[in-house]
Specification:
- The protein folds into 2 domains: 298 residues, no CATH class; 44 residues, no CATH class.
- It is 68% helix and 3% strand.
- It has 12 helices and 4 strands; from the N terminus they run H-H-E-E-H-H-H-H-E-E-H-H-H-H-H-H.
């Protein structure tokens, strides 16, 4: 079983190296066409991986499909594993869209130049994968040891969904975030950007030059001779810290959601990885159209509500709908998301006509 994990990590690492060193070797503004193509590529990879999941679990490659899935008490064959993987992928992908709203707010507040936004998202998502891997490992261990914790997760998802339905999200000042406040106390922070650097040495050439194309040189980070040589964070580092913090918060919602579908660590982690890897390109594709999808947030809340209810009533649903009831869950999630997108587009179209 360990070999399948090593192989998957090598595969993901190769994709990340290809992304950073080849596709985005030079910092540039990601155009809409490029973002759409990259989004299509990542989504295709995520869906194509379901083929590997099917044959891997059907033929028990390197130990896949030999353990009991503690969520429904069954051993996953090729079909059930594929359905659970795709359902988890769709749920995690849809919930990650909500994260895009917050990332857009963070970039706007810190005025992150468009040319360096991809760099922040790359390292932010790399950190998110590490955090989620740890959370998934802990969650899977807890469920295997204490099955009742599934009901706790289910109740938490329902409460989160109700909060999304009835409580309006207020834009907050990231400078008031406890993590940012502690960071500013522990480390000196420059007052302007220094190219793609997350930190610079005070008194060095980099600390006196702004490398954003078209922006003037701003020597306002000059320090006294006694402080020259110390390392200073840049606003780009603060934006990265906020992106990592918000993903950790969103993971608290999304990780329980995937455990409502399966407790198989490999299915949980791989569906999360492929959903998160496409978040960067999806951000650049949707960032300018976020206000268009006014009904997407209620749709995401409904998805959480449905998944939470499924977690609480899994045994009953299995009796009523049969052993492949996860297939119906996948269909319900897709219908809810499609309704949210379609309703938003229709509302936007009618508003334009009335105007």
């Amino acid at each position: 079983m360990i070999l399948i994990w090593i192989g998957f990590f090598i595969f993901i690492l190769a994709l990340l190296v290809l992304d950073l060193s080849v596709l985005h070797r030079k910092a540039h503004v990601v155009a809409m066409k490029e973002a759409l193509l990259m989004s299509a590529l990542w989504i295709s990879l995520g869906i194509a991986f379901s083929v590997f999941v099917y044959y891997g679990y059907e033929n028990h490659w390197l130990g896949l499909g030999l353990l009991i899935d503690s969520v429904d008490g069954t051993i996953n064959d090729g079909q059930s594993a594929t359905i659970k993987y795709l359902t988890g992928y769709v749920v995690e992908k849809s919930l990650s869209v909500d994260n895009i709203f917050v990332i857009a707010m963070v970039f706007g507040f810190f005025a992150v130049p468009a040319i360096y936004q991809h760099r922040v998202l790359f390292w932010g998502i790399l950190g998110a994968l590490v955090m989620r891997a740890a959370m998934i490992g802990i969650g899977a261990s807890l469920i295997a040891e204490f099955h009742w914790i599934l009901y706790v997760f289910g109740g938490f998802l329902i409460l989160t969904a109700l909060k999304m339905f009835f409580l309006k999200t207020k834009e907050t000042d990231p400078n008031q975030n406890i993590v940012i406040r502690v960071t500013r106390r522990l480390f000196p922070v420059t007052s302007h950007y220094h190219g793609e650097h997350f930190f610079v040495r005070a008194g060095s050439q980099a600390s006196h030059e702004s490398e954003v194309p078209g922006s003037p040189v701003q020597p306002d980070d000059a320090v006294s001779h006694t402080n020259q040589g110390i390392w200073m964070l840049t606003p780009l580092a603060l934006a990265l810290i906020m992106v990592e913090t918000t993903d950790l918060i969103f993971a608290v919602d999304s990780i329980p959601a995937i455990f409502a579908i399966t407790a198989d660590p490999f299915l949980v982690f791989t569906s999360n990885v492929f959903a998160i890897l496409g978040l960067r390109s999806l951000y650049f594709a949707l960032a300018g159209m976020l206000t268009t999808f006014k009904y997407l947030k209620p749709a995401l809340a409904m998805v959480l509500l449905v998944v939470g209810v499924k977690m609480l009533t899994a045994a009953w649903l299995k009796e009523v709908l049969g052993e492949h009831f996860n297939f119906y869950l996948l269909g319900a999630v897709l219908i809810i998301l499609a309704a949210g997108v379609a309703g938003s587009l229709l509302a936007g179209s009618s508003n334009k006509k009335s105007a």
